[in-house]
Amino acid sequence: MLLAIDVGNTNTVFGLYEGKELRGSFRISTSASSTSDEIGMMIMQYYHFRGYDPKETTAVIIASVVPPVMYSLTNAVRKYFALDPVIVGQDVDVGVENHYINPREVGMDRLVNAVSAIEKYGKPLIIVDIGTAITFDCIDQTGAYVGGAIFPGIKIAMEALFMKASKLPRVDIVRTEKAIGKTTVHSMQSGAVRGYVGALTGIILDMKEELAGEVKVVATGGMGRMMAEHCALIDAVDPDLTLEGLRLIYERNKQFFEDRRFTVCGVVEATEEG
Question: By three-state DSSP, how is residue 154 classified?
Fold first, then answer.
């Protein structure tokens, strides 16, 4: 089995694949202070809960946008699985042509999303990842990553409003039935959800004008499904887009995985050929 790990700013998502099938997934808070044992034990608890044998995991692939987490995470994989994880962007190439002026500035999760979205939805594409930040990523007709936009996430915006406006409370993020709020809470909820739907709509329309062809819009991320319910321009919601991208990258680089050296009990050994 393959363990795919997506390290995001807020959460780290683990997905366990058997072939093309996602057998299960779970998420933990991303924390640079977590030790390798803390991470390893949380993974082991999930395996135990699902009745999986860790020895059945033959490869681990990681995409990360949080460098401070990587030392503990990679050591957890080595200690608890006796495997050397492959880091996307470091050990293997994503395989997407990157047209950013400085290609290294693009978060690896955005390129992994592109791999999965192109495979599942074709091209051209706009991928909207609605999480801590909202990222818009554009794929042209050739399948190249041509750029995008970054916007503060709705939770960040609402937390800033609570912190900076002394009389405003924290509120749940839900869409009110009517745009005109009759209470402070309803007014904040109406402004938050409708404001972000308006932002999504405006940015997507502008990007569609700059991309040639019939552009599909795919949403992912923790709040992707909720916002898609209110934004008619979103064609599909795919919460497992990043995990699926990691699986595809693994499949395309399977020989690399099979030939890769791995660590067992602190000793580096080479896999047998064939």
Answer: helix
Is residue 58 within 8 Å of 106, Cβ to Cβ? no
Task: Taking the CA atoms of 165, 186, 134 and 129 in sequence, report the sign of the dihedral they define.
Answer: positive
Please state at what angle helix 184-210 crosses helix 154-164, rounded to 10 degrees.
140
**Mind listing the pLDDT tens digit for each residue in 15-60?**
999 999 999 999 999 999 999 999 999 999 999 999 999 999 999 9
pTM to 2 decimals? Answer: 0.86
The pLDDT of residue 9 is 87
Longest Cα–Cα distance of the chain, Å, equals 70
Active-site positions read 109
DSSP string, 91-136: TB-----B-SSSGGGS-HHHHHHHHHHHHHH-SSEEEEEESSEEEE
Dist CA 44 CA 53 (whole Å): 9
Q: Give CA–CA dist 116/242, Å, rounded.
A: 7
